[in-house]
Design goal:
Layout lengths: L3 H7 L26 H5 L10 H22 L11
Length: 84
């Protein structure tokens, strides 16, 4: 039986792409360490045990994206808020 880490690395993840409505907010997602938002959202291999700085960047970006998704779903984002 494969170890837990091996099983997790074999799990298929759907590739995340930034939705069109979120593009104007891309400039506000700053804590990427020079990586793209898509790269960090699709990073399912790095953990705090093998690459803590990158794992923390992933968590930060995923929380920012989750907040944007929630605000969008609740209708609390306006077109003007992305240009301010």
């Amino acid at each position: 039986m494969p170890k837990a880490k091996e099983r997790y690395s074999q799990t298929k993840h759907k590739k995340w792409t930034m939705p069109k409505w979120m593009e104007p907010y891309r400039k506000f997602i700053n804590n990427t360490g020079g990586n793209s938002v898509e790269d960090l959202m699709n990073n399912h291999r790095d953990t705090v045990f093998n690459n803590a700085p990158l794992a923390i960047l992933c968590v930060a970006v995923k929380s920012e994206v989750a907040l944007l998704e929630t605000l969008h779903k609740e209708g609390k984002l306006s077109a003007d808020s992305a240009t301010d």
